[in-house]
């Protein structure tokens, strides 16, 4: 502030009667003073943060992590996220994901930045996908090679890249050869569904359901004149159809240019069958029949049932043994729900499934109404 005051005094215009010397030429204002007054632009702050994060020889781990935290907060704004490409920041940011000694925290926070930048942002997704990042991100899903935090943030980043992005699913087919053999991204996601950490399993099953749920193709907006409105022009034999509205560049223009971009259901349905994902899902839900009720993670169970229901609604096949296991599991679960309500024991062999209080309790536990649960039961061919 002293510098600003001194500059103001030196460059002020004295009153006419006191002018005895020629007016000196105004001195340019120091840019650092402007930064103090107005603050740096977000673009400058982003570049500064990434520069610190990349400075392994000048900054310690905590400083670099804090810089990535600052960058993550900045790119929460979609315009700043899109500026990563304009500022040529994607490639150096991606370089922080490469495994190096003592880099686990840096890598985890860099993945977090990536996940935030691409979340619901097709423009950022396309910019980052040019670096072919999905094989690397899925390689972080294998414990114990990576920490729980890294695996969790990897699922977060993969969710942002894959949801509503059919072209990105192609990178899941890229095979990786390592000490575990030949695996691709779908295999890694199947592994994540078996992760020892329940939080990872919850996020993975939720991601699968997002990818499997059909999405209506986004179409360009209609002309302001509806085709159903019969005007003199529309009734004229010589009238020409209205041209498609122009597509202006923006973060979501990819959905207008490529309406099928959001259609991830088909490839996911096929992958669930060919990569054993359905088998793992059924095993995860039904268990071995010996789990105690208090050992069941209700959040994972609800998400898993939702995924199973979506799969069956799309006519996904199940083997007879899988149908039998699901049948027995639903009967056991409904019986347990009835027991917890009635305070007594029920014989699951004579259990009147769809008419029992346990059936209603089970439907509520799985986020359904009774009719929806009955439909699920019918899809696995349980006699209700």
What would you say this structure looks like, in words?
GO terms for molecular function: adenyl-nucleotide exchange factor activity. Keywords: Repeat. It comes from Lentinula detonsa. It is elongated, with a radius of gyration of 29 Å. It is built from 21 helices and two strands. A two-stranded antiparallel ribbon has the order 1-2. Helix content is 57%, strand content 2%. α5 packs parallel to α8 and α17 packs parallel to α19. The longest helix has 23 residues. β1 and β2 form a beta hairpin. It has a domain of 94 residues. The protein is an all-alpha fold and 384 residues long.
Specify the helix fraction band.
55-70%
Profile the largest sheet: 2 strands, antiparallel
> Strand portion, in percent?
under 5%
Number of strands: 2
Please give the count of helices.
Answer: 21
Radius of gyration, in angstroms, nearest whole number: 29 Å
- State the secondary-structure class: mainly alpha
- Roughly how many Å apart are the termini? 80 Å
Q: Give the overall average pLDDT.
A: 82
Globally, the shape reads: elongated
Query: What topology, given as strand order, has the largest sheet?
Result: 1-2
Task: Please write the string of helix (H) and strand (E) elements.
Answer: HHHHHHHHHHHEEHHHHHHHHHH
Low-confidence stretches: 217-243, 342-352
């Amino acid at each position: 502030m002293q510098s600003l005051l001194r500059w103001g005094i030196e460059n002020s215009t004295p009153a006419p009667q006191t002018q005895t010397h020629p007016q000196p030429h105004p001195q340019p204002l120091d840019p650092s003073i402007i930064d103090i007054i107005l603050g740096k632009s977000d673009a400058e702050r982003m570049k500064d943060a990434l520069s610190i994060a990349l400075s392994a020889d000048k900054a310690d781990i905590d400083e670099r992590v804090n810089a990535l935290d600052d960058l993550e907060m900045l790119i929460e704004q979609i315009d700043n996220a899109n500026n990563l490409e304009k500022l040529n920041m994607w490639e150096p940011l991606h370089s922080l994901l490469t495994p190096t000694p003592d880099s686990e925290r840096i890598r985890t926070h860099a993945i977090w930045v990536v996940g935030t930048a691409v979340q619901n942002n097709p423009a950022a997704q396309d910019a980052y996908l040019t670096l072919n990042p999905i094989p690397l991100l899925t390689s972080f899903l294998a414990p114990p090679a990576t920490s729980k935090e890294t695996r969790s943030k990897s699922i977060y980043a993969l969710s942002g890249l894959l949801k509503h992005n059919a072209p990105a699913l192609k990178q899941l087919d890229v095979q990786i050869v390592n000490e575990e053999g030949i695996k691709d991204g779908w295999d890694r996601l199947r592994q994540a569904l078996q992760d020892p950490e329940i939080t990872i399993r919850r996020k993975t099953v939720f991601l699968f359901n997002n990818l499997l749920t059909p999405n209506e193709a986004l179409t360009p907006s209609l002309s302001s004149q509806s085709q159903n409105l019969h005007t003199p022009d529309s009734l004229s034999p010589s009238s020409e159809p209205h041209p498609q509205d122009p597509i202006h560049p923006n973060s979501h223009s990819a959905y207008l240019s490529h309406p099928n971009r959001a259609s991830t259901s088909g490839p996911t349905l096929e992958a669930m069958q060919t990569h054993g994902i359905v088998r793992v899902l059924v095993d995860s839900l039904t268990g071995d029949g010996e789990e105690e009720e208090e050992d069941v993670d209700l959040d994972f169970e609800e998400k898993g049932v939702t995924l199973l229901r979506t799969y069956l609604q799309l006519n996904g096949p199940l083997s007879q043994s899988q149908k039998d296991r699901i049948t027995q599991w639903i009967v056991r679960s409904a019986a347990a729900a009835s027991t917890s309500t009635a305070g007594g024991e029920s014989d699951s062999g004579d259990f009147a499934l769809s008419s029992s209080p346990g059936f209603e309790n089970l439907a509520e536990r799985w986020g359904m109404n009774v009719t929806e649960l009955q439909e699920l039961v019918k899809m696995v061919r349980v006699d209700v």
